[in-house]
Design brief:
heterodimer, A: six-stranded mixed beta sheet, 13 helices, 10 strands, globular, B: 7 strands
């Protein structure tokens, strides 16, 4: 394999671009794709105060690094969710990245601040763990971005994430969600501006970016996520992508170009009647917001350590033992 | 056929994740053929050797030790 730019030895192939890259030109390619996303969707300016949500995984550390490379000034926000050793390890990676580059990392620990962790809290609240986790993160991202006076909140959602969510929302015709599935959500009604500058990069590329740049990240999947629908949708789309390179890009960007506008009205209806949460002041259509209801149902007591360790992501059938 | 004759056996060490486990496979074998042999989708993994990416057309030889790293992640968005 030769690099499409310099004809030197390539280290990675990107089949949807029909291109191979050496390390130097792969990094350039990542810069180019992120810069293009920022400009195409008018995400933010160099003068903006930017906060990136950091999990210790490949996507969030890659986008933090990419934005710094591109000359933006960016702080990090880590939410500790109390998922046993997995949370401890992911925090270590987020801290290590910030420390070695003298960056500001805001930390919010859910168990010590709100008295529950995701494994026990989701059970008490009768919610799927990923649902309780997503709800908690979205609420705390919004809260910290507003509190810190940030102009924009960056998340590490990549092309695979967006294609998988679109797949799920289309499969079930969640039209109110389809109208909001955009790379930029403007600030409104007490919500901060939210942007996804990785939408032009697949997660294979964000992982490759971290490896090439020497960025250590948590490789093992969250133990609570194993077997969830979102990962199933990703596996299904990767099967399609393997036989039809570029399918995920066409699906997602075709939706943005040709279909998203048809669902915009329904998405805005969903946000009518927003008021302030009686407990925390966050925007909500109810008397108290969903996060405060979760805190109430989750028990309000300090959790026991769950001892959960990282377990499997289903990569499809694999064999164990020695292969002859 | 991926194997060599008995007297020329090449063994490649392979580390897999989720769950973490180690295999030995008979080589030489290219990365693309190895992933096909393990029923792994190329879109869902990267192959790493000594901290560096290994391209798909590279052939793994005796004493090679590689890590097949999953790249898919995420819960509810």
């Amino acid at each position: 394999m030769k690099c499409v730019t310099c004809r030197g030895p390539a280290i990675i192939d990107i089949r949807r671009h029909n291109s191979n890259f050496c390390a130097e030109h792969f990094i350039e390619q990542c810069h180019r794709q992120v810069r293009k996303a920022i400009e195409e969707f008018s995400m933010f300016e160099k003068s903006d105060k930017i906060l990136v949500a950091v999990s210790g995984g490949k996507d969030s550390l890659a986008i933090w690094d990419l934005l710094l490379d591109l000359g933006y000034s960016v702080d990090g926000l880590y939410i500790g969710l109390g998922i046993g050793g997995y949370s401890d390890t992911s925090l270590d990676y987020a801290r290590a990245y910030a420390k070695t580059r003298s960056l500001h990392l805001i930390e919010v620990d859910v168990p010590s601040t709100f008295g529950f962790d995701i494994p026990n809290g989701s059970r008490a609240a009768k919610r799927v763990p990923c649902s309780a986790c997503g709800l908690s993160k979205r609420h705390l991202f919004d809260e910290e971005a507003i509190k810190g006076g940030y102009d924009v909140l960056v998340t590490g959602h990549n092309l695979d994430d967006e294609a998988a969510v679109l797949f799920g929302n289309t499969l079930h015709w969640h039209t109110e969600y389809l109208g909001r599935q955009l790379p930029v959500l403007p600030a409104r009604d007490g919500f901060p501006r939210k942007v996804k500058p990785l939408v032009r990069l697949a997660e294979r590329e964000t992982a490759a970016y971290c490896i090439v740049k020497g960025i250590d990240y948590i490789v093992d999947e969250c133990p609570m996520a194993a077997g969830n629908k979102h990962l199933g949708y990703k596996n299904a789309l990767n099967e399609i992508e393997a036989g039809s390179p570029g399918a995920k890009h066409s699906f997602y960007f075709g939706f943005l170009d040709r279909a998203a506008e048809f669902f915009a009205a329904e998405a805005s209806i969903d946000r009518e009647g927003l008021g302030a949460c009686a407990s925390c002041g966050a925007p909500t259509t109810s008397e108290t917001c969903a996060f405060c209801r979760l805190v109430e149902r989750a028990g309000g007591q300090l959790p026991e350590r769950t001892g959960v360790n990282a377990v499997s992501v289903d990569l499809g059938p694999t064999r164990s033992g020695s292969i002859q | 056929m991926f194997g060599l004759s008995a007297c020329d056996h090449v063994r490649v060490k392979v580390r897999l994740h989720n769950p973490r486990r180690d295999l030995e496979i008979e080589g030489p074998i290219t990365i693309i053929n190895l992933l096909a042999r393990l029923d792994l989708n190329r879109e869902a993994v990267l192959v790493v050797r000594d901290g560096e990416l290994v391209p798909g057309d590279e052939s793994l030889a005796d004493d090679d030790a590689i890590e097949i790293r999953p790249v898919i992640s995420g819960g509810e968005q």
